[in-house]
Amino acid sequence: xxxxxxxxxxxxxxxxxxxxxxxxxxxxxxxxxxxxxxxxxxxxxxxxxxxxxxxxxxxxxxxxxxxxxxxxxxxxxxxxxxxxxxxxxxxxxxxxxxxxxxxxxxxxxxxxxxxxxxxxxxxxxxxxxxxxxxxxxxxxxxxxxxxxxxxxxxxxxxxxxxxxxxxxxxxxxxxxxxxxxxxxxxxxxxxxxxxxxxxxxxxxxxxxxxxxxxxxxxxxxxxxxxxxxxxxxxxxxxxxxxxxxxxxxxxxxxxxxxxxxxxxxxxxxxxxxxxxxxxxxxxxxxxxxxxxxxxxxxxxxxxxxxxxxxxxxxxxxxxxxxxxxxxxxxxxxxxxxxxxxxxxxxxxxxxxxxxxxxxxxxxxxxxxxxxxxxxxxxxxxxxxxxxxxxxxxxxxxxxxxxxxxxxxxxxxxxxxxxxxxxxxxxxxxxxxxxxxxxxxxxxxxxxxxxxxxxxxxxxxxxxxxxxxxxxxxxxxxxxxxxxxxxxxxxxxxxxxxxxxxxxxxxxxxxxxxxxxxxxxxxxxxxxxxxxxxxxxxxxxxxxxxxxxxxxxxxxxxxxxxxxxxxxxxxxxxxxxxxxxxxxxxxxxxxxxxxxxxxxxxxxxxxxxxxxxxxxxxxxxxxxxxxxxxxxxxxxxxxxxxxxxxxxxxxxxxxxxxxxxxxxxxxxxxxxxxxxxxxxxxxxxxxxxxxxxxxxxxxxxxxxxxxxxxxxxxxxxxxxxxxxxxxxxxxxxxxxxxxxxxxxxxxxxxxxxxxxxxxxxxxxx
Length: 764
Prior knowledge:
Blueprint: E1 4-9, E2 18-24, E3 27-33, H1 50-55, E4 65-68, E5 71-74, H2 77-95, E6 100-104, H3 112-125, E7 130-132, H4 139-149, E8 157-158, E9 165-169, H5 173-176, H6 186-195, E10 199-203, E11 216-218, H7 225-238, E12 251-252, H8 254-261, H9 266-273, H10 277-289, E13 293-297, H11 299-302, H12 307-320, E14 330-331, H13 339-345, E15 352-356, E16 363-365, H14 374-379, E17 388-392, H15 396-399, H16 403-410, E18 415-419, E19 432-434, E20 444-445, E21 455-458, E22 460-461, H17 474-489, H18 496-508, H19 510-519, H20 527-541, H21 558-563, H22 573-578, E23 583-587, E24 603-604, H23 608-620, E25 629-632, H24 648-651, E26 659-661, H25 663-668, E27 676-681, E28 684-692, E29 700-702, H26 717-721, E30 748-754, H27 757-763
Parallel strand pairs: 6-7, 6-17, 9-10, 9-13, 10-11, 12-24, 17-18, 18-19, 25-29, 26-28
Antiparallel strand pairs: 1-2, 2-3, 4-5, 4-19, 8-14, 15-16, 20-22, 21-23, 25-30, 26-29, 27-28, 27-30
Helix pairs in contact: 2-17, 3-17, 4-12, 7-9, 7-10, 7-12, 9-10, 17-18
């Protein structure tokens, strides 16, 4: 790589910040914000400088390794591919296709090459036992979008740059840089909100980094958000504040929501939520009375016992108060590559509950089962028991509930392979690890997070460093495995046309396909001109791509040109290369009802599955308010995933893996400053330093996720030196939101007591 400054997009969280990386003599000399980036305008968070640590990490694997009796040994790529394909095929032949499980971690969605190759790989794998981070994260949002708008990734995004009231519940964008809301420099944007006379309201069990900036802050009891939100809906109807405004003509079933809200008066829910009845009414009045306002919720509202209903109600409140598809409210992006339209044209809008998991009968979503049932499917004998497993860029042992049970499950598999460049808590159970190139060694385009941006942009980053001839990208690994698995399935040989398709796919790679998607998208060249370029490629790949793969629809995007005639045209990969900081595609614009994918092109405000689940929510009103301690997670701006803890820049300083506990509860548990606490549930116990603070409400304890690097057999030196404890070692995997199948990661009860070294040694 030549000396000089190179511009690209940081991939370490959802914010898509532009970075300027200065390279000298083949090494990174500095990383700064890109002042010309149309989305981040020079802002970066502390994570960005860790790009250098991750790229230069001596613990990062560079060649395939396999487990032997003498320990891990390196192997050549062809040997590794053959071994993996043969072992997976042998399990599938002996026990059936569903005897293989697959887990996809969330770094995959930051990788356009991996995303393009994943569906062909999963089709070749053939299993229905698929899992991902989705059910530990954003599943309730995807379900609500599917049920209400007709497409699982059609998410309304806060138009934060133009709103006058930003109401934030169960989210901490100051630490996360937004989540399902791509928003760099949150502090600057909130400062601008206040400068124009706007207001920030935060509702959370902890006075978060965002809460500390709030003009108005309310504590709320974990797991009670759905009650609070339903009481706000009740208030809107009771005080005649309902006005869908712009959305009125294409919104149906408002009366059903009114009837559903009748029992949930502010007085009825107040004892359960911790907010006074008047405070609840005032929140509803503020949302209804501010023309440009947005109500935003995230992890805290979605990963709880009523996460499905809570997420639905956030959408409902925005719609009933006229905030959907209006400037300053909740709007939809118009990305350069419109994955919503591409999927919608082939019927790939999402699906839910077409089948259920073997052991617990949990519903699938988009072809995936909830991650909380992975251990069940491995440990429970019977037809369909998982006997082999594939992980791709994921560490579920630290990120999914009941890590101890999942560890036991991985330990009994017949075969396991991981596509990962770390030997971590999960991959140490693999028989073979296939390490892909690092992010700076491949090109980058955010297919997914461009769809959630608070401003329409398109940004492409070419690879910064050459990984060398013996390295493989994620997409190369996945396509090679898929190709060999399909050969195994067909007895070793493929039809000539299919073989040519696989070879072409592996030769073409993701970037030419990215170019085709850009050219035929809403900002691209005229569809008629690009069709001759698109069709031969699609024809060549037709036997390789799954039946409803979005790439099949590249030549059929002309309807978008009619819908969005006012958008600038001419976008292509070459145009993005000529603009290394990115291309500004303009602010969010109203685009409904054309953007809807429901059958009648109306918003389904009251899907039946949510109305049916309200009976369970109503039962909460008759339950006593428990005085047990409730556990919640938390985010930190220097952390996002477990693999970031192997960066010295991100873990240095004060210990962040602590248990936050209110002073009143600390006294009740016999805890003082400097103590460590034993946190336990039915599934496990952990020991963690105590942080006594009034930033959490009484009855609540909080600790971050992704830590727990104290298991033997890993190779992450920095992470092991800052091990912390895994919150998922005490979170039960039998607690889910039955409506959506989402893991309950917030609001589970825990026991907390003073940890004494003597007792710890006796128990050990």
